[in-house]
């Protein structure tokens, strides 16, 4: 019933809201790097995606990025929380994880970062003339093939939802004859799938050829947002937000990894780093 609400054309008007939330985050980053160019980004990105979902899903002009605690008291009351818990999680934590790891992947691969920047500039200019109403994005989000390949390869290496679990509603028998009974909880590791050398050639290498046009793979080899009848209803929303955040960030900053603090992926409900995700930022504009 809800799926039509997430159609690509219906999501287009929300692009300016996404862009506005990203702008607030990037403005904060400019202030912070004037003191130190090393920045832990996951917390900032998480507040930005929370700001975005509050605006897009609930028409709430939050101050979460500038006043986190006031936002928590004014908005996330018990009744509202009970109604929107699922949307808040799926539209906030997973997207924050995806954006943070994508930015880290590009920081670690400057050649790909530069190619993405050139592609984005060819569509949107240098960023100075972009209207924050987002109209510059709405007609170009599906015209970023190189950027899209980078996003997908980063999501392969760092899937935002690294695992899911299901309770079997009926017994299940594997092709080799082994079986599982009804009622058992099974876990599916998307992280393990994406790093499986039997599925991917050199799975630990950042390799865009895996998503180049014409590349062949099993339909369920790549599941950053699940798949099948229970795939993520907001996957188009998420991909749109990823592209907006990535484009605006690259137009504003050059990204580099912090060699003294290499992130260590740790699978929780979403994929995080047990020591944070630190980047070195250099302002471009």
TrEMBL record:
<dbReference type="InterPro" id="IPR050196">
    <property type="entry name" value="Cytochrome_P450_Monoox"/>
</dbReference>
<dbReference type="InterPro" id="IPR001128">
    <property type="entry name" value="Cyt_P450"/>
</dbReference>
<keyword id="KW-0479">Metal-binding</keyword>
<comment type="similarity">
    <text>Belongs to the cytochrome P450 family.</text>
</comment>
<dbReference type="InterPro" id="IPR002401">
    <property type="entry name" value="Cyt_P450_E_grp-I"/>
</dbReference>
<keyword id="KW-0503">Monooxygenase</keyword>
<keyword id="KW-0560">Oxidoreductase</keyword>
<dbReference type="GO" id="GO:0016712">
    <property type="term" value="F:oxidoreductase activity, acting on paired donors, with incorporation or reduction of molecular oxygen, reduced flavin or flavoprotein as one donor, and incorporation of one atom of oxygen"/>
</dbReference>
<feature type="binding site" description="axial binding residue">
    <location>
        <position position="232"/>
    </location>
    <ligand>
        <name>heme</name>
    </ligand>
</feature>
<keyword id="KW-0408">Iron</keyword>
<dbReference type="InterPro" id="IPR036396">
    <property type="entry name" value="Cyt_P450_sf"/>
</dbReference>
<protein>
    <recommendedName>
        <fullName>Cytochrome P450</fullName>
    </recommendedName>
</protein>
<dbReference type="GO" id="GO:0005506">
    <property type="term" value="F:iron ion binding"/>
</dbReference>
<keyword id="KW-0256">Endoplasmic reticulum</keyword>
<keyword id="KW-0349">Heme</keyword>
<dbReference type="GO" id="GO:0005789">
    <property type="term" value="C:endoplasmic reticulum membrane"/>
</dbReference>
<keyword id="KW-0472">Membrane</keyword>
<dbReference type="GO" id="GO:0020037">
    <property type="term" value="F:heme binding"/>
</dbReference>
<dbReference type="GO" id="GO:0006629">
    <property type="term" value="P:lipid metabolic process"/>
</dbReference>
<dbReference type="Pfam" id="PF00067">
    <property type="entry name" value="p450"/>
</dbReference>
């Amino acid at each position: 019933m809800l799926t039509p609400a997430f159609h690509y054309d219906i999501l287009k008007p929300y692009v300016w809201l996404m862009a506005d939330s990203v702008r607030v985050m990037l403005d904060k980053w400019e202030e912070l790097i004037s003191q130190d160019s090393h920045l832990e980004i996951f917390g900032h990105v998480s507040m930005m995606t929370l700001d975005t979902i509050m605006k897009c899903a609930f028409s709430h002009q939050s101050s979460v990025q500038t006043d986190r605690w006031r936002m928590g008291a004014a908005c996330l009351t018990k009744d509202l929380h009970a109604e929107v818990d699922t949307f808040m999680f799926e539209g906030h934590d997973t997207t924050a994880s995806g954006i943070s790891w994508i930015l880290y992947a590009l920081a670690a691969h400057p050649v790909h970062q530069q190619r993405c920047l050139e592609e984005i500039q060819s569509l949107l200019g240098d960023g100075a003339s972009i209207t924050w109403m987002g109209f510059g994005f709405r007609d170009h989000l599906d015209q970023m093939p190189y950027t899209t390949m980078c996003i997908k390869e980063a999501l392969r290496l760092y899937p935002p939802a690294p695992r899911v679990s299901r309770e079997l509603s009926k017994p299940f028998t594997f092709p080799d004859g082994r079986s599982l009974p009804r009622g058992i909880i099974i876990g599916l590791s998307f992280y393990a799938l994406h790093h499986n050398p039997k599925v991917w050639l050199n799975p630990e290498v950042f390799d865009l050829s895996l998503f180049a046009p014409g590349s062949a793979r099993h339909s369920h080899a790549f599941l950053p947002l699940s798949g099948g009848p229970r795939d993520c209803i907001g996957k188009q929303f998420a991909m749109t937000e990823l592209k907006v955040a990535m484009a605006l960030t690259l137009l504003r900053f050059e990204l580099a990894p912090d060699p003294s603090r290499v992130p260590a992926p740790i699978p929780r409900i979403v994929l995080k780093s047990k020591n944070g995700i630190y980047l070195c930022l250099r302002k471009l504009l």
